[in-house]
Amino acid sequence: MECCLPNPPCLYFCRLDGRLIKGKGVITNPDTGWEYEVLETLAVGGMSTSYLVYSYYHKKLAVLKEISTELAQKAKAREMFQREARVLSSLKHSGVPQYYDFFYTSERYSLLMELIHGQNLEQIPTYTKSDVIDWMIDLCDILHYLQNLDPPVIHRDIKPANLILRYNPRQVVLIDFGAVKEATTPPGTRIATPGFGAPEQSTGNPCIQSDFYALGATLIYFLSKQLPSHFYDFNEKRFLGLEGIGIPQHLVKVINNLTEFNPENRPQNAIAVKELLQQVKTDLM
After folding, report:
1. Cβ proximity of 247 and 224 under 8 Å
2. Which residue range(s) make up the domain with 35?
3. pLDDT band (50, 70, 90) for residue 16
4. Is the model's pLDDT at 9 over the cut of 80?
5. Within 10 A of 148 (CB to CB), how many other CB atoms are there?
6. Measured between alpha carbons, how far is 220 from 247 in angstroms, rounded to an integer?
7. Burial environment of residue 81 by CB neighbours within 10 A (0 to 12, 13 to 18, 19 or more)
8. CB 53 within 8 A of CB 64
9. 192 vs 18, 222, 248, 272, CA distance in Å?
10. CATH code for position 192
């Protein structure tokens, strides 16, 4: 990968002719022959690793997500990863990463998707209450789309780390569908991020209102800059003390509604959540 022009080590492509000059090896789809050059590791999680890759077929940067060799041997892990790929391949919305490819070998399962050029909301240092409301309104539009599919789709892992503010157009994108579930499938796997996951998720009984609970908990995180679990009272089964840290009362009322312990007492659709947030935004002006 030598180049005719010296380039800084931070560059992946030549400044002169645009050729790829930096890579760590190629991952190939054995069925199509499509090749993906690994550039760097983006994230390492408990169940998967994500890489920044260059797709020679698509001629663009992308994200390649893999489950480990050990997990690939477990039926449940394979099932969830294949479900993530299947659901993602059916989604067509600007607030969701575009699906590109899925393949597997005896050693790995791989999912290729759009690289979102933007900033993770968890890493944005300064913002206003109005910014936060706008982000959650964007999220409502995504949830409205997901919940009106046939069958409806439950994300099950909404949290700041899974929200990216796209640079252009300036909008929120919901990422990481690793815990995704169709609403019509039987109850089963218990998945819930502590502090953000709805109570019913811990018993394996998620519903579309579970994502509203996580949206409410995410609001607490952004408005307090603390983990929501810091404010949760297990005896009362709700979040307490939000007014004491400066969250406006009308916004606390919305958060309490979204995070009701019983999902039947939460808003029943994303449009209703969006309308609540739009009214709060008007009150803040």
Report:
1. yes
2. 26-114
3. very low
4. no
5. 13
6. 9
7. buried
8. yes
9. 43, 19, 28, 24
10. 1.10.510.10
Residue 5, pLDDT score: 53
pLDDT tens column, 151-195 = 999 999 999 999 999 999 999 999 999 999 999 888 877 888 999
What is the per-residue pLDDT for 190? 86
Predicted TM-score (pTM) of this structure: 0.90
- Tokens linked to 54: 């260059």
Instruction: State the Cα angle at 270 between 268 and 274, rounded to 5°.
Output: 120
Residue whose token pair is 């796209």: 166
Nearest-angstrom CA–CA distance, 223 and 248: 10
The single residue listed with the structure tokens 């394979």 is: 78
Structural domain tally of the chain? 2
Q: Of all residues in the chain, what percent carry a pLDDT higher than 90?
A: 78
Question: Is 101 found in the same domain as 174?
Answer: no
Q: How far apart are CA 165 and CA 154, in angstroms?
A: 21
Whichever domain contains 71, its CATH number is: 3.30.200.20
Q: Give pLDDT, residue 191.
A: 86
Mean of pLDDT values over 224-237: 95
180 plus 54 within the same structural domain: no
Are residues 94 and 171 part of one domain?
Answer: no
20: in domain:
no
126 and 103 together in one domain: no
Per DSSP, the chain holds a count of helices (H) and strands (E) of 6, 13
